[in-house]
């Protein structure tokens, strides 16, 4: 938790310099509290860095494609010419990401993760997939992660304004 706290302090310090007045002074504290609630339910003071990174990527303001690519880079393993996502790595990613909706009571069962993993690897004879297959599967908006593009769309439309007047 100390290591993650230090990284968050640095992250939010940079954000304060880039966007003065737009970053809450307690952002590190709030974010660390959220990450602990998601990934350290036992209160042992241990959060996997990769799990925390996945949550920060998911909650970032970046585009869906950029998030999906970052997930791939975070969970991929070297595979000769190209990095690959294994079934185990995909299960870990989905389990980590599903802690986000779980924090607000919208949890997914372990069988949801297994069904999603099976659908991603459907028709794949190998035990791992390349980035393009992974991205294609995520673009199909699998049910287990439907909350992610939904939240992205809501966030993207927050600042949209138009000249029409509603009655």
TL;DR of this structure?
Helix content is 59%, strand content 6%.
Please give a handful of descriptors for the protein shown.
167 residues; mainly alpha; globular; 3 strands
Describe this protein's structure.
With about 170 residues, the protein is mainly α. It is about 60% helix and about 5% strand. It has 9 helices and 3 strands, in the order H-H-H-H-E-E-H-H-H-E-H-H. The protein has a 3-stranded antiparallel β-sheet. Helix 3 runs antiparallel to helix 4. The longest helix is centred in the N-terminal third of the chain and has 17 residues. The chain starts with a helix and ends in a 10-residue tail after the last helix.
Structural class: mainly alpha
Strands, count: 3
What strand line-up does the widest sheet have? Answer: 1-2-3
How much β-strand is present in the residues? 5-15%
Order of helix and strand elements from N to C terminus: HHHHEEHHHEHH
Please compute the radius of gyration using only Cα atoms: 18 Å
Ends distance: 51 Å
Q: What quaternary form is this?
A: single chain
What spatial form do the alpha-carbon principal axes imply? Answer: globular
Q: Output mean pLDDT.
A: 92
Number of helices: 9
Residue share in helices?
55-70%
Low-confidence stretches: none
The major β-sheet equals:
3 strands, antiparallel
């Amino acid at each position: 938790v100390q290591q993650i706290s230090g990284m968050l302090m640095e992250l939010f310090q940079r954000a304060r310099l880039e966007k003065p007045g737009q970053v809450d002074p307690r952002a590190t504290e709030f974010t660390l509290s959220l990450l602990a609630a998601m990934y350290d339910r036992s209160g042992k003071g241990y959060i996997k860095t990769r799990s925390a990174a996945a949550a920060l990527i998911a909650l970032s303001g970046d585009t869906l494609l950029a998030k999906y690519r970052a997930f791939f880079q975070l969970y991929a393993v070297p595979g000769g010419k190209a990095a690959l996502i294994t079934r185990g790595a995909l299960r870990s990613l989905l389990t980590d990401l599903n802690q986000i909706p779980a924090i607000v009571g919208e949890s997914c069962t372990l069988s949801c993760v297994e069904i999603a993993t099976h659908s991603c690897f459907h028709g794949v004879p190998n035990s791992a997939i390349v980035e393009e297959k992974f991205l294609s599967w995520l673009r199909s908006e699998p049910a287990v992660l439907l909350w992610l593009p939904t939240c992205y769309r809501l966030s993207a439309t927050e600042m949209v304004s138009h000249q029409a007047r509603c009655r």
